[in-house]
Amino acid sequence: MQRIIAPSMLSADFGHLDRDTRMIDKSAAQWVHIDVMDGVFVPNISFGFPVLKFIRQATTKPLDVHLMIVEPERYVKRFAEAGSDIVTFHYEATNAAHHCIDEIHAAGARAGISIKPATSVEVLRDLLPSLDLVLVMSVEPGFGGQKFMDGALGKIAQLRRTIDEAGLSTLIEVDGGISAHNARLLFDTGADVLVAGNAVFGADDPKAEIERMLDV
């Protein structure tokens, strides 16, 4: 199992996005997480292609792009071609999951799928062999700063068992309410990648906070 921290740029200072991206680039974090929200699938709007392009220029680290948008099949290829290393879309947002995965892979990126807190991991069983990553939401998607929902732990453990029993290399990512206080529990339960926003960018020393999360 890997231990990867992916700071969420949704919690960065948008007035100093270049500074904050370059800070993450110099930190121990392995990925940079970018939340794309359309105001339809979730009640908030965030980054689009121009900001993604800007962040891509400011870091050499893999861009982990989480699409919280309806009809992701219309855009997954463009996000992959725009510099995303991992493109994750929501299971609940499309009836064309296999098509989205194929489009992402064809564009040269890794493909991920995300599930909301109310969605069972069972819906992913047939998709797992074609996925590089599963993102378990431990809060309701759309806003940062929410409290971690304990129900995610069972999902992580179930996914870990299913992935290991099938001999797959699919990574398990968790997003929502994550900090150094629960990082060890999440890694021990079976997570490979932790997304942290407020815990990193709200810390007095963001780089030290990232190291604490990896050092648990």
Helix-residue proportion = 25-40%
Low-confidence stretches: none
Helix- and strand-based class? alpha/beta
Shape: globular
N-to-C span: 15 Å
Order of helices and strands: EHEHEHEHEEHEHEHH
Mind telling me the C-alpha Rg?
16 Å
Tell me the number of helical segments per DSSP (H or I, 4 or more residues long).
8
Biggest sheet strand order reads 1-8-7-6-5-4-3-2
Strand segment count? 8
The share of residues in extended strands comes to 15-25%
Averaged pLDDT: 94
Question: The biggest beta sheet, please?
Answer: 8 strands, parallel
Explain this structure to me?
By secondary structure, this protein is of the alpha/beta class. 32% of the residues lie in helices and 19% in strands. It has an eight-stranded parallel beta sheet. Strand 4, helix 4 and strand 5 form a beta-alpha-beta unit. The longest helix is centred in the last third of the chain and has 15 residues. The protein is globular and about 45 Å long. The two termini are 15 Å apart. The model has no long low-confidence stretch (mean pLDDT 94).
